[in-house]
Amino acid sequence: MSEGPARILGIDPGSQVTGFGVVDRVDGQIVHVAHGTVRSRAEASPAGRLGDLYRTLCEVIEAHHPDVASVEQVFVSRSARSALILGQARGVALAALGAAGLPVHEYAPTRIKQSVTGSGRAAKIQVQRVVRRRLELSATPAADAADALAAAICHAQAGVIAELGVRSRVRPRGRGRGPVVRVRRAP
Amino acid sequence: MSEGPARILGIDPGSQVTGFGVVDRVDGQIVHVAHGTVRSRAEASPAGRLGDLYRTLCEVIEAHHPDVASVEQVFVSRSARSALILGQARGVALAALGAAGLPVHEYAPTRIKQSVTGSGRAAKIQVQRVVRRRLELSATPAADAADALAAAICHAQAGVIAELGVRSRVRPRGRGRGPVVRVRRAP
After folding, report:
1. Is A141 within 8 Å of B184 when comparing Cβ atoms?
2. Angstroms from B24 CA to nearest CA on chain A
3. A127-158 per-residue burial string, b: 16 or more CB within 10 A, e: under 16
4. Which of these, A89, A111, B99, B141, could form a disulfide with B145 (CB 3.0-4.6 Å)?
């Protein structure tokens, strides 16, 4: 199997804070490029916050030109209300990735933790520490940025595993050419 | 109280189909401008569909220059999984409205039905028929477009009611100036 794209953008969408992390896979090594968080200001309206999130993620994509994106699958054992609110931020992140034409891979949270720390039940702080050490960062990344970097690392490792001939559960998804829009205007 | 903005964009976000409807409020009359639906093509990826939805709604906003948006509040008694999926489409719609700087008003489904048909429990087909008659449309609009037009009509009528000095539950929301973005790059 081919190694696939080399620059991976991980996203950890959240209703308050969205983390992002960019890594390169170079000759089987995973190298840090950038990471950060997008935090909406409390005084913005819900729509204004989501609009800001979309634009900021477009700027991240524009700045780093990733080849592929990796996003955590959502754990939906929470309430319908919180699932709706989380879904809103997640939809905006996916829309920004989709509009940029990036293939999006999704991984279960346990798979990401397993891939990065060796345990599917690792605590947040463990993920932060392992990500810091693994990417040789000078400081511990914020939890949401660490989760985004972990998603990117997970995808990078899935590619390495695929090269070794081990069965991978990564499922690339195709891109659409455009929606069907039906409009009726006043005569 | 002032009459407020005159061109209203109603949106009915859905995981498969999103409806939109534009009306003008002119001298207390509500006049149809346009309506339609955005339907994602089945072969597009989830992210690709959401990206298409965002771009299409931006085109609708660009084409019609609404002053304000009206969106149905979500009824979350359904499952967390469907709330998440619906939330994704809803987040994209709100992001497009927010990025365009539109104030977004939200109304409960029963309030929209009550406002348009006189009954908070009206069936979908009743909403479609009343919207058609009310806006003097030559054909019955699709259910999602009719719901979007109904949301726009509801907001237009809330403004009229406000003018009459009746207490209104419309709550304008402010706009944010921009998110807080923290980025760490590789040195």
Report:
1. yes
2. 11
3. bbbbbbebbebeeebbbbbbbbbbbbbbbbbb
4. B141
Q: How do beta strands B180-185 and A29-39 pair?
A: antiparallel
Number of H helices, E strands in chain A: 5, 6
Query: Does the distance separating the beta carbons of A89 and B45 come in below 8 Å?
Result: no
- Structural domains of chain B in order of their starting residue, each with its CATH number: 6-185 (3.30.420.10)
Cβ-nearest to A47 among B34, B104, B141: B104
Residue B182: how many other CB atoms lie within 10 Å: 16
CA distance A27 to chain B (A): 18
Over the stretch A88-121, which tens digit does the pLDDT of each residue have?
999 999 999 999 999 999 999 999 999 999 999 9
CA-nearest residue to B24 within chain A is A186
Whether A45 sits inside 8 A of B187 (CB atoms) is no
Note the ipTM here: 0.79
- Structure tokens that stand for A101 in this block: 């034409």
d(CA B187, CA A129): 19
Tens of pLDDT, residues B145-180 = 999 999 999 999 986 555 444 333 333 333 334 456
Who's near A15: CB < 8 A, 6+ residues apart? A82, A85, A86, A88, A89
Active site amino acids of A: 12, 72, 144
Closest alpha carbon within chain B to A95: B51
Q: How many CB atoms lie within 10 A of CB B185?
A: 12
B35 in helix, strand or coil? strand
B179:A53 CB<8 A: yes
Residue of B nearest to A85 (CA): B87
- Chain A positions touching B83 (Cβ under 8 A) are 80-81, 83-84, 87
Q: pTM of the full predicted structure? A: 0.82
Model confidence at A167, in pLDDT bands (50, 70, 90)? very low
* B174/A44 Cα distance (integer angstroms): 6
- Tens of pLDDT along A54-87? 999 999 999 999 999 999 988 776 788 888 999 9
